[in-house]
Design brief:
CATH topology of the largest domain: Spore Coat Polysaccharide Biosynthesis Protein SpsA, Chain A
Mean pLDDT: 88
Helix content: 25-40%
Distance between the termini: 79 Å
Number of helices: 19
Number of domains: 3
CATH class of the largest domain: Alpha Beta
């Protein structure tokens, strides 16, 4: 049976170290595994303080004054005794079956020296949001792009005797250089499409676009230097990669005129001391032609600027885009004449608020100025420290009720507010958004005339701090398939019947602080509620710098949305799967947007 040596340097970050240690500790008990943890004497508390209980894994701490990750991995590999070596960063993890799979592949391929597999990309809460399956490594691909194989890379310890250790002079591409040496020496690589490791995305991880442009330039420069060292020349794709990041560093936008010229000029200048590169212009033209087939909008940089802006704007999807154009006045919609108050359905609305006094008055006015006679409007404040309470008191006579009370977050505030209303129709409106004039009369009339409909929503306006329109979502009819992959329903335009609320136990799930409205939508869907998109702008979503939606989207938001996707779909779909699932809906949205624009233009 093959034995394993897993090496984990932990020189500074230890935020996720426990998860890393556990992923090795709880591997198959039948395997012989040693876990070598390389740390610096001045790196803080010893990892030995983490008590993971009894395990078959032999864990050793190697303290040494190393400089850089490559040196730390080398130090661990010098001490390794296992037949197979795996290297695991202190924020990544293995899957429970990883080492068993690796052992099986090596035993089935006795001539294999290196194996690599798919990588699950996980967030800070260990939720998988994408699986990346590497392509087969061949001469063309390994020179064209530096493959990131960690943490799914495993190799025989005997390989180190023939190819040597990692190059400690490299900061970014030491694993790429190691794989390049092994590939050029003729050692056999074996690929599996099974996931062998999990790479974590967090704010300090520079593998996910968090690297500043200077680091990207340094990495591209390092790559062409190591390729020149091994090949005696610089392949054109590597030179162009450097030219692209240099162009970005100098302020050239990829869709701007002159970008191609800048990329070629900077690439040529950068590699001139290394002897230049053949076929630079031809390779760039070929790559741009291929990209243009996939991203046609890139062709617009070859057009006059005025034409390019118009073409990009025409073909751009507005869905999920917030700022779409320069601020302009909001156009008034035609007001509908509703039925008498005795025939109208009652509507209950809640506005949760915490320290948004700057916009709260406009939000409240947008509701009470509807002059809807059967309205129960509640403002639920979370003990704001600004003048929110003073503003609420100005409208006290027009409110069903209000209170200022500490809560556990926005979701709990909504639940508390809705517990005070007893109406036919229900909704909530955030304290920086607004209802558009006539919306409540329209909603009541629509539900009255369509008794089989349970949930409705409409088009969305997007406004700035000064109530100026900066975008709009003109939505196509409801798509029951697309809603499982992405929440395209504008919350400020959504209203539902009391029977729908009772079908989901009259509550928002307070474990959600970002995606609570999507959770409610999916629970309505699971309960068999009927959704309809109505052809009217009902509300406006305000975009501000400190907005909760924008602040949380890249952190808690991604985790909560993937939690819902896993619940509904049974897995977290890849980005490609999500794009394919909502592509038909986005195309219909694009069509409806331009149809609405044409209609408004025709009406003047």
């Amino acid at each position: 049976m093959l034995s394993f040596s897993i090496i984990t340097p932990t020189l500074a970050r230890r935020r996720f170290l426990v998860e890393t240690l556990e992923s090795v500790t709880y591997s198959d008990a039948a395997l012989q595994v040693e876990h070598l943890i390389v740390t610096s004497p001045d790196a803080g508390d010893s990892p030995l303080k983490f008590d993971l209980g009894d395990s078959h894994v032999t864990r050793s701490i190697l303290e040494t004054p190393v400089c850089g990750a490559a040196a730390a991995f080398n130090h661990g590999m010098l001490q390794a005794q296992g037949d197979i070596i795996g290297c695991l960063a202190d924020d990544d993890t293995y899957l429970p079956e990883t080492l068993s799979r690796v052992q099986g592949i090596f035993e089935s391929n006795p001539d294999a020296e290196i194996i690599y597999g798919a990588i699950d990309q996980i967030d800070e809460d260990n939720v998988t949001y994408r699986t990346r399956v590497p392509r087969l490594i061949n001469q063309r691909r390994i020179l064209r792009k530096a493959p990131n194989l960690q943490p799914s890379l495993f190799f025989r310890r005997s390989l180190l005797e023939r190819t040597g250790n990692l190059d400690e002079s490299l900061q970014y591409h030491f694993w790429y250089e190691f794989a390049l040496r092994a590939f050029r020496a003729g050692h056999r690589f074996v690929r599996t499409e099974d996931s062998l490791g999990c790479k974590r995305r967090h704010r300090e991880n520079t593998h996910f676009g968090n690297a500043v442009i200077s680091d990207r330039v340094a990495a591209a420069q390092e790559r062409i230097e190591l390729l020149h060292k091994h090949l005696g020349m610089v392949p054109a794709p590597a030179a162009l990669e450097l030219g692209q990041v240099l162009a970005l560093q100098q302020g050239f936008e990829p869709l701007a005129k002159g970008y191609d010229r800048a990329v070629l000029r900077l690439a040529s200048q950068a590699i001139k001391p290394l002897g230049g590169s053949r076929n630079l212009y031809l390779t760039h033209a070929k790559h741009q032609s291929v990209r243009a087939l996939k991203y046609p909008r890139e062709l617009t940089r070859y057009m006059p600027k005025a034409v390019a802006v118009g073409v990009r704007g025409f073909f751009r999807s507005r869905l999920f885009q917030l700022k779409q154009h320069e601020p302009r006045a909001v156009k008034n919609q035609k007001q509908l004449v509703g039925e008498s108050a005795s025939k109208q359905l009652s509507i209950g609305m809640v506005t949760p608020n915490l320290n948004t006094a700057e916009y709260l008055q406009r939000t409240i006015e947008s509701v009470v100025n509807q002059n809807f006679p059967r309205l129960q409007y509640v403002v639920q404040d979370g003990e704001s420290t600004d003048n929110s309470v003073d503003i609420i008191r100005q409208f006290e006579s027009q409110l069903h009720c209000w209170e200022s009370r500490r809560d556990g977050g926005q979701t709990q505030a909504i639940n508390r507010g809705l517990s005070h209303v007893d109406t036919d129709i229900m909704a909530y409106l955030n304290s920086d958004d607004i209802l558009l004039p006539g919306s409540l009369s329209f909603v009541s009339e629509y539900f009255r005339k369509n008794p089989s409909v349970d949930v409705i929503y409409g088009h969305r306006l997007i406004i700035d701090e000064n109530d100026q329109e900066i975008g709009r979502w003109v939505l196509p009819p409801h798509d029951d398939h697309a809603i499982m992959f992405a929440d395209y329903i504008p919350q400020e335009t959504m209203f539902w019947r009391k029977r729908a609320w009772e079908a989901v136990e009259c509550t928002f799930d307070e474990s959600f602080q970002f995606a609570m409205d999507w959770d409610l939508i999916l629970r309505f869907r699971a309960a068999g509620m009927k959704f309809v998109r109505v052809p009217r702008f009902l509300g406006a979503f305000r975009v501000i710098e400190t907005q909760k939606t924008q602040v949380l989207l890249e952190t808690l938001g991604t985790t909560e949305m993937n939690r819902l996707r896993r619940r509904v779909l049974g897995h977290v779909p890849s980005h490609r799967e999500m794009r394919r699932a909502i592509r038909p809906y986005r195309f219909r949205q694009w069509f409806h947007h331009h149809a609405q624009t044409l209609l408004e233009t025709t009406r003047g």
